[in-house]
Amino acid sequence: METEALKVAVVMQRVPLANRWQPYQWKPIEISADAVLPDGGAHCLRDDEIDTRWLFAGFEIRLYSDEAEGYFLNIDSPAPCWFVMSRMEEVDGVDVAVPKQVTLSYNEAARLMDGGERVDTLPASRDIIEHMARFVQEHYRPEVKKKRRKPSFEGGAGVEQMARAEGEQHGS
């Protein structure tokens, strides 16, 4: 089960840093509904010494039932957010952090970071959080935790077998 697609655009900003090893930093500063711009469009909004901003359009956001736990973890956090994965690329002769994926799933963002990708966050709007909450309420069923006893506490044959195996390893 998945929801209808919501098209969004991401604005990435480059700001100078007072750091000799890293002269600037890229970060997402806005995610907005994308009803007008062509898919995959990249547009420079501002470029000067103080601030550089690029708009990237064409991202489709859908909520999937198999990612319901990731949406639950997002809305259950103190600050629910968008996750934006970006990579440095050359666009019109300039190095720019280009967003490659936008998601609301905490688990999906964690998988991207585990794979070595850069993932930044941006606060989600109240409307998006409410939409996720309705989806989670309908599709998320927490896994029932089962108690598991360790074999060493079961006593009897299990303990005797473990003791024999250890004794054989140590030459007893």
Please explain how this structure is put together.
- It is a single chain.
- Helix content is 26%, strand content 37%.
- The protein is of the alpha+beta class and 172 residues long.
- The protein has one domain (6-139).
- The strands form two sheets. It has a four-stranded antiparallel beta sheet with strand order 2-1-4-3, with no helix packed on it.
- Helix 1 crosses helix 3 (126-139).
- The model has no long low-confidence stretch (mean pLDDT 87).
- This is DUF3305 domain-containing protein.
Element string (H = helix, E = strand): EEEEHEEHEHH
Shape, per Cα inertia axes:
elongated
Number of helices: 4
Q: Can you list the strand order of the major beta sheet?
A: 2-1-4-3
Task: Write a compact overview of the structure shown.
The chain is an alpha+beta fold. About 25% of the residues lie in helices and about 35% in strands.
Give descriptors for this structure.
172 residues; alpha+beta; 4-stranded antiparallel beta sheet; 3-stranded antiparallel beta sheet; 4 helices; 7 strands; 37% strand
